[in-house]
Specification:
The chain is an alpha/beta fold and 282 residues long. It folds into two domains: 145 residues, HAD superfamily/HAD-like (Rossmann fold); 111 residues, no CATH class. The chain has twelve helices and five strands. Strands 3-2-1-4-5 form a five-stranded parallel sheet, sandwiched between helices. Helix 1 crosses helix 2 and helix 2 crosses helix 3. The longest helix is centred in the middle third of the chain and has 18 residues.
Length: 282
């Protein structure tokens, strides 16, 4: 089946746009616990403080408003919190790293270019960490990343009543592999990924298919999803971290029908407040 955005044609008046990692697929928890956190501990030699390091890393990446940020942004915040307690980094080297992060072109390729210009022991270690992290993530199987409880049921309930799009910043191959492994692709009409553009850009393109803004609902688990919805003036439904099953159940029992009936707007503000309050306040 062709899931490409270019060839997609609207079949219904309304569309739900679903993020993948952390929203439908329980991938963020295992990635940060078994990959990001473990790799950080290994690279910095912090095995004696593994419990404390995992708690800090998971808080930044899963339970605070920073959930879903780029790995290098998260790493900069992690170093800020533990420097002088669990590790000691050179202040000038750390500033150079933070300056690079501020530029915003955050990838391994960009980091390698920066290393050629400003090679420091810290940047070398960060590069080692990022490469090791990629290997750990690549070793995960779809079985390590199941859909959240009630997620598939929500797709079944919505399918045929609205178009269903995946709007994700993951790569296309990973999305297809994960959704196919759990028999979810049968409910999907179109897939967008990091190769297509940002979530905001992909939502903008979805609107060119003939939907009114009030007929588009973005479903996500983190602020980048909210930002993409706000950027395009469409509705947002939150899948709450640590309450994902309940969020999907509520979507089935109340919010999807409200969306279909044009009544979702009356719930939007209260859902956004609930979303914000669910995060750990620093």
């Amino acid at each position: 089946m062709d899931y490409s955005l270019n060839n997609f044609e609207r079949k219904h008046d309304k569309v739900i746009c679903i993020d993948s990692d952390g929203t439908m697929i329980d991938a963020m928890n295992v990635k940060h616990d078994k990959c990001h956190g473990d790799s950080f501990i290994y690279t910095w030699g912090l095995e004696d403080h593994a419990k404390e390091i995992h708690e800090i890393w998971d808080s930044i990446n899963l339970y605070e408003k920073s959930r879903g940020v780029n790995r290098f942004i998260a790493l900069a915040e992690m170093i800020r919190r533990i420097n002088g307690k669990y590790i000691t980094v050179n202040e000038d080297d750390f500033k150079k790293f933070c300056d690079w992060v501020e530029v915003g072109n955050l990838s391994n390729a960009a980091l390698e270019e920066e290393l050629e210009k400003n090679k420091t022991p810290l940047l070398e270690k960060i590069h080692d960490w990022s490469l090791d992290l990629n290997k750990r993530i690549a070793s995960l199987t779809p079985q390590d990343k199941p859909p959240f409880e009630n997620g598939k049921e929500a797709l079944e309930y919505a399918f045929g009543k609205a178009d269903i799009a995946i709007i994700s910043s993951s790569n296309m191959a990973a999305i297809v592999e994960e959704w196919k492994a759990h028999d979810l692709l049968q409910y999907v009409n179109v897939i967008t990924s990091q190769e297509i553009g940002t979530k905001g850009e992909c939502l903008k393109e979805m609107l060119t298919k003939g939907y009114s803004k009030e007929d588009v609902l973005m479903i996500g688990d983190a602020y980048p999803d909210v930002d993409a919805a706000n950027e395009n003036g469409v509705y947002y439904y939150p899948i709450l971290t640590r309450h994902e099953s309940e969020s999907w159940k509520d979507f089935i029992n109340l919010y999807f029908d409200a969306f279909l009936n044009g009544e979702y707007g009356k719930y939007q503000e209260e859902l956004l407040v609930k979303f914000e309050k669910n995060f750990v306040q620093k």
